[in-house]
Amino acid sequence: MRTEGGDTLGNSIRRSWETQMALHPITAAHVALMSAVIAGNPEDWWRRKLGLILDGAAAMLARRGHPDEAGQDVICR
To answer: Which residues contact 2 (CB under 8 A, 6 or more apart)?
Structure first.
């Protein structure tokens, strides 16, 4: 998605955040991290996001347990 000036929406958002970082030093580290996340190719960003979701699902599955040999769910608490 592009702005009226032809810039990407992500770059426009990052620039507005960067001007605010100096005014709000408490949140500057968080803003810098978010700026890094949205930088670059949107296709890469979505791929990284999908990877995070899948990693989270795998971690939840590992914590909850796996079906036993009888086909019953094993619940770990």
So the answer is: 8, 9
Residues 25-62 pLDDT 10s: 888 888 887 787 777 677 887 888 888 889 888 888 88
Shared domain check, 25 and 1: yes
pLDDT at residue 77 tops 60: no
Contact by Cβ (8 Å): 61, 37: no
Question: What gap in Å lies between CA 45 and CA 25, rounded to an integer?
Answer: 26
Which residue type, as a one-letter code, is found at position 71? G
Q: What is d(CA 11, CA 42) in angstroms, rounded to the nearest whole number?
A: 11
Same-domain check for residues 66 and 31: no
Report how far residue 1's alpha carbon sits from residue 3's, in angstroms, rounded to the nearest whole number: 7
Q: What is the DSSP letter of 35?
A: H
* DSSP bridge pairs for 2: 8
